[in-house]
Design a protein that fits this description.
The structure is a homodimer of 133-residue chains. The first copy, chain A, has 133 residues and is an alpha+beta fold. Chain A folds into 2 domains: 72 residues, Arc Repressor Mutant, subunit A (Orthogonal Bundle); 58 residues, Dna Ligase, domain 1. In chain A, 42% of the residues lie in helices and 22% in strands. In chain A, strands 4-3-5 form a 3-stranded mixed β-sheet. The radius of gyration of chain A is 17 Å and the shape is flat. Chain A starts with 7 loop residues before the first helix and ends with a helix. The mean pLDDT of chain A is 93. Chain B binds a DNA duplex (30 and 30 nucleotides) through helix 3.
Chain lengths: 133, 133
Amino acid sequence: MSKKNETWAEKVLGIIRQRDQPVSAYGVLEELRSESPKMAPTTVYRALKSLTEKGSVHRIESLNAYVACSDDGHHHPSIMSICGDCGSVDERDAPAVFSHLSSALGEAGFTADHHVIEVHGLCADCKETEDGI
Amino acid sequence: MSKKNETWAEKVLGIIRQRDQPVSAYGVLEELRSESPKMAPTTVYRALKSLTEKGSVHRIESLNAYVACSDDGHHHPSIMSICGDCGSVDERDAPAVFSHLSSALGEAGFTADHHVIEVHGLCADCKETEDGI
DNA sequence: CCTGATATGTTATGTTATAACGTAATGCAA
DNA sequence: TTGCATTACGTTATAACATAACATATCAGG
């Protein structure tokens, strides 16, 4: 039941939301190609650009991949925790982290405009499993 | 006066240290090729892998580039501030940031093992220049 | 009607990174 | 001193990620 008259950005957002793990641009492309075999990478990258600018999607720099925003278009920075075992990514709020970050940078005269905070490790479930072994 | 009997990793570290800006793997490769025209990317990536594992070099995920560690092999995480204007990257210590990060993640049961903290913005010098306009 | 903004199509290319295999030198332990 | 693991390096090929440059279409508002 895919909707007609959707923009590519809307379709891309749908694809990313359906997944519980980050998707690469080419992952999205492959999925779109099942319906539109001639799709070019450019199209996907354009859609991703508009979605990340709007805040509907976040890019995970350390994975070259994208996840849906957990709170579409929230306008505050967040932190991403990335499980190295199951691959899940969780977005969290952490105001205290950003306030300390701001003050550390502010003292040095640095003006922040975009934050990349990605923590790799093990999620609670995978940690349990490992410990259980 | 380049030394003989240096490993590639040592040479790569030298190249990265000479620069005051992040260098891409292919940037390093190009420089090495001026003396060793047949050098392959693999060689550079191998050197970068060993250097980042040792902590002599840090990878900037959001730039796909590398900088020398400001305190070779320190074994605590640091934050990187990246000037969008002049391209300079500064590494800083910020223990308070990491302690809040740990507690936020710890509450959720997440076990951290590697941190990517990269802040894009304007360094003090570039900010002044902009304001001066 | 014209014009600017946005979305899209198309082709080509640039950039970043790894796989998979082989060789050489070294150190160390049986 | 032979055998074996380890580390570094060479070589070829390919995979994965990303953008440039230029063309066409649609539509809202002046």
